[in-house]
Structures are given as structure tokens and as C-alpha cells.
Amino acid sequence: MIQLFRTDHFKINEDGTCYAGAGTYSNCAGKIGITLSIEPRETSELQFVWAEDPEWQGDPHNTVGLPGALVCPELRRYAEKGAREGFAANTITGGYRFTLISASMSPSDYPRSPIQRASFVAVVKWLAHHGLSKQSIDHKTC
Predict the structure, then answer these.
(1) pLDDT tens across 82-109, in order?
(2) Which CATH code is given to the segment(s) 2-139?
(3) CA distance 123 to 52
(4) DSSP tag of 30
(5) What are 51-83's pLDDT values in tens digits?
(6) Torsion of CA 54, 59, 63, 66, to 10 degrees
(7) Domain map of the chain by residue range?
(8) Sign of dihedral through CA atoms 55, 60, 64, 69?
């Protein structure tokens, strides 16, 4: 059984991309929101893509809507780890592409960002939404 918490958020946007959020601003735990896409692929591996946005005019130190390619490598590794955990929880080892389109997080919580959790939630909820989940989901209230 996969456990999700009340601080985990997920929605599918009109354009087919997803939004996932995790964390809280209280207790310095950090909060993040990511926009991503998950697409089936005819491959035996999981593919991870970090989207670029050449028109992005934001401030990389004010991480709101930061393109996936500009998210620091350490946090991209945590995003990949969380997504892999979500796929593995459903015994999936390949056949999908996970594209991190953008991330929004509090600069003060950047080192402790829960991007791994948000990626996990995104994969688990996306699979469940498409009827591909092999696990039941328990929504905890704490």
C-alpha cells in the first residue's frame, strides 16, 4: 500500500501536464510544486528529461517556475529518485518518460526541498489516474 499525506497534492492540467506538490511551510520542512509530464515510451528503461525554456526571464534565485533544466543537479537527482520510487512501487522499471517542466520552491528551503516526494506523488497519482496502479493508495490525514 502506498501512503500519501494531506500535504501531497496532484492534479492533471488541461494541457495534459501534471502538477504535484509536497511539503509544508511550517517547521522549516520546505514546500515545492512541480509541473511535469509522464508519457509512455516503447523502451525498456525509464527516461528522465529536464525541460528547457529559452524564453524564461525569471530570477534563478527566486525559484518560481524555474525550468527543469535550471534546477540544480542535486535536486534533479532527487526528482529522478522519487519518480523511480513511484514507478518501482508499481513494479514498473521501464517504458515511460518523465519530463520535469518546471519547479517552484521557497529559496530559503531550497536545500531541504521535498522534490523527491513531489516526484513520487506525481508518478503514483498519474499511474492511478490512468488505471495503471498496482497498489492501493492510503490517504493519511497526518
Answers:
(1) 999 999 999 999 999 999 999 987 655 5
(2) 3.30.230
(3) 21
(4) E
(5) 999 888 877 666 678 899 988 898 899 999 999
(6) 0
(7) 2-139
(8) positive
